[in-house]
Amino acid sequence: MLAYLxxxxxxxxxxxxxxxxxxxxxxxxxxxxxxxxxIAKIQGEGDALRNLSGGGGDAGQSAQxxxxxxxxxxxxxxxxxxxxxMGFSKLVCTPSHQGEPSLKSPDCHKEKISAFHRFFIxxxxxxxxxxxxxxxxxxxxxxxxxxxxxxxxxLGLWSTLLAYVxxxxxxxxxxxxxxxxxxxxxxxxIIIAYAIPAFLFGVVLMVLFAGGSYWKIFxxxxxTSDNFxxxxxxxxxxxxxxxxxxxxxxxxxxxxxxxxxLTKNSFLxxxxxxxxxxxxxxxxxxxxxxxxxxxxNAMLIVIAGFPALFxxxxxxxxxxxETIFSLDGLGRLGFEAAVQRDYPxxxxxxxxxxxxxxxxxxxxxxxxxxxxxxxxxxxRAG
Length: 382
Fold this sequence. Notes:
Layout (H helix, E strand, L loop, with lengths): L1 H26 L6 H9 L33 H10 L3 E5 L14 E5 L2 H13 L13 H36 L4 H15 L2 H12 L23 H39 L2 H8 L4 H19 L1 H19 L5 H11 L2 H29 L5 H5 L1
Antiparallel strand pairs: 1-2
Helix pairs in contact: 1-13, 5-8, 5-11, 5-13, 6-8, 7-8, 7-11, 8-10, 8-11, 10-13, 11-12, 11-13, 12-13
């Protein structure tokens, strides 16, 4: 098992490299780079995409101000300074230059950095977990990620745990009662729950329970109250759970439906196998057969779905849920960075999510072994 884990850990490096390379290459063709966004804000346009002419304005733009669509009236010196600050160019000074490098000095000039060079500079920094500084927030990406992480972890962790707590017992019950009235009406409820988008269900919850048109039981926004620091330990726990209830329920609605059907089908498949009939023939109770023999084998496929479920909740669903409930998490941060073309934040959050996904996948394999020690990944790899 140790050799298998070592190989999986080593595979993280080329996998992350591939993820970052593909996404970095894609950004070179996306119109409206960060400098275009700044130009649009300076000119009061609000969005660089309105100023594009012919699809220019990517991250690897030239130093010439004429290549920036809509840059008329912007001093060329300002554009040069922006390129240097954002890492698209660097200052090169003659050996005789004294003092700090400056664009105003006749001994210094701007030299464009190629996309290829910038990519490997970025990778070198990321290996040290140095994600740079946000273009638009004047704060390091590491500090931003640490600041937003608790919100996303809260949504992802609690929603995943709630989905498993509901889905596994319900799925087992549906498998045991397959074809009965209980199985029929719960299947209908699950289909309806699966068909409702998480963000729409979140809006319904807000209208019903957050002071919309009916009851004001839960808060409308935020993860904690304004007086959170003044509360006691129990008060802080209660306040946190009070705020997180509606977002977690909204996020769980579709994930628990999928997991319930997966659990049911997995148990039905195991119940019909020969070893179950043998166990029953030996006189074992139905409960002993179900939880002593079937459970361990049936849960393997359920455990296999944990990484996808967790990451789907952690990132995919959290973007809309965080926006609806005014929660400032990683999903919302990544979305806003993509709109603003804040490349350090985009690649920093992408790196974090990619690394988390790969680590969670390894943890899933370890859970396989814990559930069924008969599994030997080293023999399978051989």
